Amino acid sequence: MSNFRGAKLALFLGPDLVVIQRDDYAHIPYPGCWDFPGGGREGNETPEACALRETREEVNLSLSASDLIWSRQYGPNWFFVTRLGKQRIADIRLGDEGQSWRMMAPETYLSHPMGISLFKTRLQDYLTETQTGFFTPSF
């Protein structure tokens, strides 16, 4: 775990996901695409701490490690899933990264042309393994 680079969080509030439209700068990966909260590791933080910090910074939601219900390491990066009630939508405030945020059904994300294919695969892994839903992605 000490050599990981970053973490992402598929954050379900009710049945839908919180997604962030990335800034549209040529120097960043996936400019303008729909992304999940997350980012690069700071200092010696754990993967969980990284995902939770980035979520707080990007959408103003403070979560705890006990909210993380599924995780998997993909190479040097971690992917987590949280499912909370839709009442938390009222607490969302976009941080200083990203153009906007929205709620998106998982099947919409999986088929969205501006969804990030890497994260589509990881979301599909979670949905398939937990039998939460079987969506046929078109990516």
Automatic annotation (TrEMBL):
Which cofactors are required for activity? Mg(2+)
Pfam families from the entry? Answer: NUDIX (PF00293)
User: Which InterPro entries did the record assign?
Assistant: NUDIX_hydrolase-like_dom_sf, NUDIX_hydrolase_CS, NUDIX_hydrolase_dom
Task: Give UniProt keywords alphabetically.
Answer: Hydrolase
Query: Does this entry carry the keyword Hydrolase?
Result: yes
- What molecular functions are annotated in GO for this chain? hydrolase activity
Query: Domain named Nudix hydrolase: which ranges?
Result: 2-129
Q: Which domain of life is it from?
A: Bacteria
Q: What's the protein called, per UniProt?
A: NUDIX hydrolase
Q: Which organism is it from?
A: Ruegeria spongiae
